[in-house]
Amino acid sequence: MTTHSKTFRGIKISAGIAIGKAVVFSHTSRDITRRIISPDEIYIEKDRFISAIKLIIDQTDYLIGQMNPKELKKIGPHLHVQKMILSDLRFIEDVKRIISTDLVNCETAVSKAFEKYSKLLHSKEKALLNAKSTDLKSIEFLLLRVLSGKIKDISLLNEEHILITNDLTPAELYYYSKQKVVGIATETGGRNSHTSIVARSLNIPAVSGIQNITQIINTMDNVIIDGHNGILIHNPSNKQIQDYSSKKVSFCLLSDKKVDKTEHMFVSKDGQRINIYANIDFPEEVETALSLGADGIGLLRTEFYFIERPRAPSEEEQFKSYDTIAAKFYPKEVTIRTLDVGGEKIPGFISQHKEENPALGIRAIRFCLRNKNLFLTQIKAILRASHRGNVKILIPMISKIDELTETINIIQEAKDILTKENKKFDPNIKLGIMLEIPSVIFTLEDMAEYVDFFSLGTNDLVQFIMAVDRGNIELFDSASSTNPAMIRVLKIIFEKIQKINKPIYVCGEMAAEDENITVLLGLGYRNLSMSPVNIPLFENLIRKIHIHKAESLVNEIIKMKSEKEIKMILERFLNEES
């Protein structure tokens, strides 16, 4: 029977490429055997429960004991959280009580107890151990797997494989990394869960948030994990396997390369210097960006400090984190983007109604201007981190002048407060806005009077120009940066920026794909920002490209009507240049 390749779009968890056979490791609430027990079985079920807890804690202690100092520093704290949750006497007694009073087996009691604790996590005052709900769910899965005897399945495998599962705990992930797991895809979990942080620390390519994937993929199916772009390919074609094998080899070789920081790495074949900056989602990515020779941070996302917390981060907490990053990169510039949440990404400590169309709703600067105290606190923290003179402020989702002027007033208010408090900051800190809403394209000249630079947010710009939800896998091909309309829009923007004579940076995912990079360079863009792990791949690409040839190419494709034709031309160009 012929199998067809299918691509699934998920959440980028950990960069890298993995190719191999799938091992499906599923255990959800649907798999629980719910059973009514007799009074005589109460002791047996309680004993099973306590034995499972003891086994996990003993194994966790063993794993901690096997870690080297670097692993212990990065992963140890997450394993300790797991131990603390499973050792919590309130949880243990709750499970025992449910077994006794409801006369149910311990699997059923465990699920019922975790459901209660999950609700507690959404309380502002009772955030259990500051754990996240996704982390609690993965610990529940772990305990249920131990009770069912399925915890040992994965250790029996002798070949490299890609693990497809509902979710994992940090302890499980660390254990499997010592076996032969080369990639991971999960149904649940987000970029800031404990497991995701551990995956990045262990350099295991990983994607999450792919619904029902354990029901779709079968053990021993061929799978590709593209952690750079948050993609899973099921039953890939021979060409896809070949292409990704080449990308994997290139990525591994380049990632292992020792960077000479005195060397100008990002120079094209015809001698043109391109400025390459890093997009940073989490503080642990900073060291990677530094080691790979990034020219600075083009986009420091700050959502990490706000999402899934029981309370808002204080000014001091934010300042210390921003300041540490700015110090590490000094004198290189660090661009800090203000909070970009709203719609479906709402901090737990904020009450906001559900919106019909989150992408077009109260998000980013609209959200911040409606939560002024939260916004003012963040602005003050960013200003304080600017005292060395290498920090810039970037405002997302600006759509009109009124939003910009109101933001500028808040920045000035923050400066006035810090002056009264005798706290140092850069009085001449540069201000920029994200260019991602189409209305701004037609008011660039007006905006330029208020800002020092622009950052092109290609992710949302493509979404809005093409009227496509970029998270919808069914419309994956429609959210393309090589669509003729997008290329022409990018040309219009660059020509306007040239007349205005203000710097422009490209900080969306468009700056991470070879074909897109060729288009951007051909249009004239020279400041690109990308995920740190993509920097070595870009360095390898730019050394092979003649910029003047890319410019001639874009002059040719800008007239084309078919996206398919454009992609063919770009692919041919890259093959000729390499």
What does this molecule look like?
The protein is an alpha/beta fold and 578 residues long. Helices cover 46% and strands 13% of the residues. The protein has 2 domains: 6-240, Phosphohistidine domain (Glucose Oxidase, domain 1, 3-Layer(bba) Sandwich), CATH 3.50.30; 273-537, Alpha-Beta Barrel (TIM Barrel), CATH 3.20.20.60. The strands form 2 sheets. An 8-stranded mixed sheet has the order 1-8-7-3-4-5-6-2. It has an 8-stranded parallel sheet with strand order 15-14-13-12-11-10-9-16. Strand 9, helix 10 and strand 10 form a beta-alpha-beta unit. Helix 3 crosses helix 4 (106-121). It is globular, with a radius of gyration of 25 Å.
In short:
By secondary structure, the chain is an alpha/beta fold.
- Strand content bin: 5-15%
For the record, the CATH architecture of the largest domain stands as Alpha-Beta Barrel
Structural class by secondary-structure content: alpha/beta
Number of helices: 22
N-C termini distance = 37 Å
Number of strands: 16
What is the helical fraction, as a range of percent?
A: 40-55%
Strand order of the largest sheet: 1-8-7-3-4-5-6-2
As a whole number of angstroms, the C-alpha radius of gyration is 25 Å
The CATH C-level name of the largest domain is: Alpha Beta
Shape type: globular
CATH topology term of the largest domain:
TIM Barrel
Q: CATH superfamily membership of the largest domain, which one?
A: Phosphoenolpyruvate-binding domains
Major sheet characteristics: 8 strands, mixed
* Domain module count: 2
